[in-house]
Amino acid sequence: MHVFRLLPLATALAALPVTATWAQSLADLYQSARGYDATYQGAQAQFEANLAKADQGKAGVLPSAALSGGVSRSDFTNDNPSTERYFGTQNASLSVSQPLYRPANWASYRQALKGIDVAQAQLLAAEQDLIVRTAQAYFDVLAAQDSLLFVRAQKAATSEQLASAKRNFEVGTSTITDTREAQARFDLVVAQEIAAENDLRVKRIALDQLVGKTGAQPLALTTPVALPPLEVSDVENWVAQALLSHPNILQAQANLRVAELEVDKAAAGHKPTLDLQASYSVARNLNGSPTTGTLGPNYRTTISSVGLSLNLPLFAGFATQNRLRETLSLQEKARDDLELARRTVALNTRTAYFGVVSGLGTVKALEAAEASSQSALDANKLGYQVGVRINIDVLNSQSQLYQTKRDLAKARYDVLVGGLKLRQANGTLTVDDLLRVHKALNP
């Protein structure tokens, strides 16, 4: 009698070394990555630098003050009559200037304010990228782990089938062909197991590098897995939202405004400037001076002044005209960059949307294929036991079932990551979206 027993998947799952106390949720690993990932840390540092640079733009419209001082000594010698004495000088001055009309400075100040918008858009893009990279690394480990689990389960079942074929050959109820076919399939599964182990090792290293932990272990998903549906079923609504809120578009819009203000700065080269200036100086002379003679032990003079300073540019060797032409061309480039950003965001949003829709359809198809593969395997086992099916039929059905299970698990993870990528594509991805995925999968 042919004997065939398929090792339960739960037994294979238990064979993979996973320490429950080390398991970490998607939210936990994201927080670790946020505090460790070099790319994100660099983006934060760049954001702080951009804020400091933006504050520098205020200097051109605020008053400036300077304090100066000095000490000197002069030796005076006269041959006829022979005279020699020295004169000392001590002086200090304070000067203050307030720009009243400087169009270029005000344009620079408005540019600095727009620089803050650029910095915020860049940091937002970096945060969204970190969310997607963390989720991708998280589910890559789970997918590689599932693949190894299924391969090991298939290996155990194939080993049982090989043992059954050998026993049946020894008692004369099957041919050597069944044994050799089972041995070949077993060897193939062993090779697949080695590849799956290496793939899992690589995926875990990548996750460790991202989150800054050694031996980071994603928390296994609860079963059955209920994939969240698309909240908005119209792709054009996703695109319309992307055109309003995507950080790349916001950054391109801010860059266009900066380019327009650069044109204003260049045009200001033809305009006059007006400043309010005030100064106060004190000078103390010891023993007089060489020009005034000796006026006593010492004397002090003070000078204070308040006035307006007007500067009217007349000609700068056509530098202003050429600078204006340059900034106009750069403004046109910034406008083209904005249009390119809009087209790219719209394309990426549509691609991500249809990717999620396709992924959901693939999951449903693979769920049906899993049930069909299980039925086919059961039928082939029964046929093998009664002698109407051969060993290779059982092995093929068994391989198809585990391949389907592996593809189904991977498709589910792809849908989860694809949902986050869709929100990244339309610029609305936040940490709350990551937490919703975490809560849905690990209630």
Helix and strand topology:
Elements: H1 9-15, E1 23-24, H2 26-36, H3 38-56, E2 64-79, E3 82-101, H4 103-170, H5 176-211, E4 217-218, H6 235-245, H7 247-267, E5 273-286, E6 298-311, H8 319-386, H9 391-425, H10 431-441
Parallel strand pairs: 1-4
Antiparallel strand pairs: 2-3, 3-5, 5-6
Question: What does this entry look like structurally?
Answer:
With 443 residues, the chain is of the alpha+beta class. It has 2 domains: 9-61 and 102-270 and 317-441, Outer membrane efflux proteins (OEP) (Up-down Bundle), CATH 1.20.1600; 63-101 and 272-312, Single Sheet (Outer membrane efflux proteins (OEP)), CATH 2.20.200. Helix content is 65%, strand content 15%. It contains 10 helices and 6 strands; from the N terminus they run H-E-H-H-E-E-H-H-E-H-H-E-E-H-H-H. The protein has helices at residues 9-15, 26-36, 38-56, 103-170, 176-211, 235-245, 247-267, 319-386, 391-425, 431-441, and strands at residues 23-24, 64-79, 82-101, 217-218, 273-286, 298-311. Strands 2-3-5-6 form a 4-stranded antiparallel beta sheet, with no helix packed on it. A two-stranded parallel ribbon has the order 1-4. Helix 2 packs across helix 4 and helix 8 (319-386) runs antiparallel to helix 9.
